[in-house]
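Entry type: protein chain
Record version: 2
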Amino acid sequence: MAGIFTVHGLSTPGVLQRGALEADAGLVVGVSGQLALWSAAVLFAIRYSPLADVLARRVSARALTAGVAVALLLYAVVGLAMPSAFGFLARLMLVTSGGSYGDT
């Protein structure tokens, strides 16, 4: 969660995200907050389900830690270097659900 909140803090418009990147940086902040809550809830739920025993038998702790680290690094790179990807997805979801954005 610390890594997610690091991306959250660094994506605050005006901190690192300036100029053209600043427009979509707010979406990264919002997604980071939701992702932190969601990931904690999912991991807590898995811990107290039969899936925890299955994972413990089939996936090594080292592989699980490496997978989480890679996913977090990928999220940080996309969130900090290309916040427009979040903006694209948000606009796509709005348009496909019948909404609109911008001046119209």
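Comment: The CA atoms of residues 63 and 69 lie 10 Å apart.
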